[in-house]
Amino acid sequence: MSTAASAKNGTWRNWGGNVTARPAREVTPASVDELAAAVRKAAEDGLRVKAVGTGHSFTSIAATDGVLIRPQLLTGIRNIDRDAMTVTVEAGTPLKRLNVALAREGLSLTNMGDIMEQTVSGATSTGTHGTGRDSGSIAAQIRGLELVTADGSVLSCSEKENPEVFAAARIGLGALGIVTAITFAVEPLFLLTAREEPMSFDKVTSTFDELWAENEHFEFYWFPHTGSTNTKRNNRSAGPEKPVPQLQGWFEDEFLSNGVFQVAQWVGRAAPGTIPSIARISSKALSARTYTDIPYKVFTSPRRVRFVEMEYAVPREAVVETLRELKTVVDRSGLRVSFPVEVRTAPADDITLSTASGRDSAYIAVHMVKGTPYQAYFTAAERIFTAHEGRPHWGKVHTRDAEYFAGVYPRFGEFTALRDRLDPDRRFQNDYVRRVLGA
To answer: Measuring CA to CA, how many Å separate 117 from each of 7, 54, 333?
Structure first.
């Protein structure tokens, strides 16, 4: 089974296994013209249209009972412009292939998320991000977009061309059109030194502002039921390259982080009472390490244990208080949480529905292993996040609706007005889009 979502007997299922759909038909276009024709044909047949990448969203953002567009033939680099320092890629290109191809050309994105299984269009449309003091989400690095709109026409946008579409469509939720190509800003390939080390929860929260200010990319994982975290700082380096040795990398990233962790999840699922003990052992399993490598080998890591996730962006200055409240709730409740809580940051950006739109943000992500009941934990977490005007990741579990979003996104009306213009008949709507944007 690949990391992508699967379709069996006409049923589409996402990566986390918590969303299924039965589309009327699936189309795998080999060109932008074919994709545009598929949209026009859907309109003739009165069917709605959704594109789906690798199904890494935990929401039903890509689910449809109409036409499901699979972009796996729309892949590869269209153009590298070394004067402008941009690269234009087809929408179905997996981030992994983009990262490898760019490195071969001596180029790199400035920042990226912690996995690279997704397609470029799926990742950007839902606001996928990593962590950064000065550098934002993957969508914040977009310099141009091409999309097929509801009437089957192809529209290009950038800061200069159709700027009001560009402001919104970089994180468009699939509601404005189907992205066919993306132009990213790139820079010459550089080296990052990663420093990973355990730190107590109290220390990381009391010195969070300094840790954030002193590092280009800072993140940490807190192990619920413990006072322990694992921190990671990534900073640019003059070199030399000093990657994690192969055997050590296999042991730490595959055996411990995926293999042993998976077994621990199985044990915890079968016997929830053992989870706090397992958490204490897990939090001590990973020791400190430092390594230097090209960006995608430092930013990203394999995630083979399947899970369901909720993540909210809160104002950066509220993150420590929010996290302490979450810890108190976990400590005082009967909840048994076997998955670490991930904390990252992003600077404010100018994308209409970006979770970091107009404010410096910090992200708190809660996870539960696939197959365990997650509702009680996520409901408790969401209550805390929303009290801090949190904005949920568009591709992760949440219960918010258009009324809530109108309150936490100052430019929400700008997005919905543009949608009214580009998709008046709601060709790209589904239940999720109706809930989050309104009918």
So the answer is: 17, 7, 35
C-alpha distances in Å from residue 199, one per residue of 116, 204, 230, 283: 27, 6, 6, 10
How many residues are there in the chain?
439
Single pTM value for the model = 0.92
Is 216 in contact with 235 (CB distance < 8 Å)?
yes
β-sheet bridge partners, residue 291: 194
- Cα separation, 112 vs 129, in Å, equals 6
Please give the DSSP secondary-structure letter assigned to residue 40: H
Q: In this structure, what token pair is assigned to residue 282?
A: 């897990």
Strand ranges (E), 186-252: 187-188, 191-200, 217-222, 228-237
Mean pLDDT of 12-39: 94
Handedness of CA 132, 433, 1, 365 (dihedral sign): positive
As a whole number of angstroms, the distance between CA 163 and CA 153 comes to 17
Return the bridge partners of 27, or none. 69
Asked if pLDDT for residue 6 goes beyond 90, the answer is no
Instruction: Give the phi and the psi of residue 381 in degrees, each rounded to 5.
Output: -65, -45
Cβ-defined contacts of 320-323 (< 8 Å, 24+): 320/205, 320/208, 321/388, 322/364, 322/384, 322/385, 322/388, 322/390, 323/205, 323/222, 323/364
SS (H, E, C) 168-190: HHCCCCCCCCEEEEEEEECEECC
pLDDT at 147 over 60: yes
Q: CB of 291 within 8 A of CB of 194?
A: yes
d(CA 300, CA 355): 21
Beta strands, E only, 265-354: 289-293, 307-315, 341-346
Residue listed under structure tokens 């322990």: 228
Name the residue among 133, 79, 92, 130 with its Cα closest to residue 109.
130
Residue 82: how many other CB atoms lie within 10 Å:
12
User: How is residue 284 written in tokens?
Assistant: 């001590």
Going from the C-alpha of 75 to that of each of 28, 39, 78, 207, the distances in angstroms are 12, 19, 9, 44
Task: List, in order, residues 6 or more apart from 194 with CB less than 8 Å away.
Answer: 232, 233, 234, 289, 290, 291, 292, 293, 298
C-alpha to C-alpha distances, 400 to 376, 391, 394, 405, 410, nearest whole angstrom:
16, 9, 10, 7, 16
The answer on pLDDT for 244 being more than 90 is no
Residue 152, burial from CB neighbour count under 10 angstroms (0-12, 13-18, 19+): middle
